[in-house]
Amino acid sequence: MEIFNPNSNINFLGLRRFSIAIAVLLMIGSIVIIATRGLNYSMDFTGGVLVQVKYDKPVKISDVRAALTAGGFDRAVVQSMGSNSDFSIRMQPKADPKALKSGGKLDPAEVARDVLAALKARRTDATLARAPDFVGPQVGAQLRTSGIYAVIFVIIGIMGYLWIRFERRFAVAALVTEIHDALVTVGIIALTRRDFDLTVLASVLAVVGYSINDKVVVFDRVRELFRLARKAEPEEILNRSINNTLSRTIITSLFTAITMGALYFFGGPTVHGFAVTMLIGILIGTLSSIFIASPILLWLGVSKKDLMPVSRDNPELARRP
Fold this sequence. Notes:
By secondary structure, this protein is an alpha+beta fold. It is 62% helix and 9% strand. The chain contains 11 helices and 7 strands.
């Protein structure tokens, strides 16, 4: 199925000055936002209190969330523990100001008491299933560090793969665009003050993997056209590659976005962060595949000779001792 004519000749490279300028501004803006506003880390990274409750009769998880919201715990994370009567409730350090001790530390017993009071206001059969637990911020700091290392490892691994499969200029172009995609995605999350938890971190890694898939398709077409063409200029080859793969890029992005939309509307609040981050990343990754990766290749000076396979029949090789 083709949305766009693969033989069309839209001059995407003619917009490279504007597209690169916008990309640079977005990256700088994202860095500024992350540095000044920071990320809205969830309990996965900040620590907090875990309260487990049970009901004598089954209850909908939406009703539990509604009871907590009515009691002032609008940031609580509620998860089912395998049944409709057992739930875990996670609270961030500042989720219950009344339970803060001197020095800003939460008293787990006070948090559990306030949570139970909020639940009993709607359903009197709510009780504590076990004593509340406190999760220290040290675990969160370790997770943040591990997450940063994971993103760096993925990007470097992708760069190495492209260096081996294509050529170093393709690896550099992919590295720059992957940094752009991940940075702008995280910048938008910071700007909108969405919770940054482990599912969002996982989706950032997924965005990096998804984005490179689009770029590999374009890069494959670039290599193929360079080998087929005799006298075409690099700018012409890059434009033709984008036009040839445009339908595939748009269709893949569209159906992936539909899947993420379904996950957002029907997957429950637990996966909202993952779905929203993926939707943002899909949009940014698609645009960077079209408007950023190829201009960088052109700027780096990619040419036909960089992609021609080494042959024993090559006259220059034949003259070598």
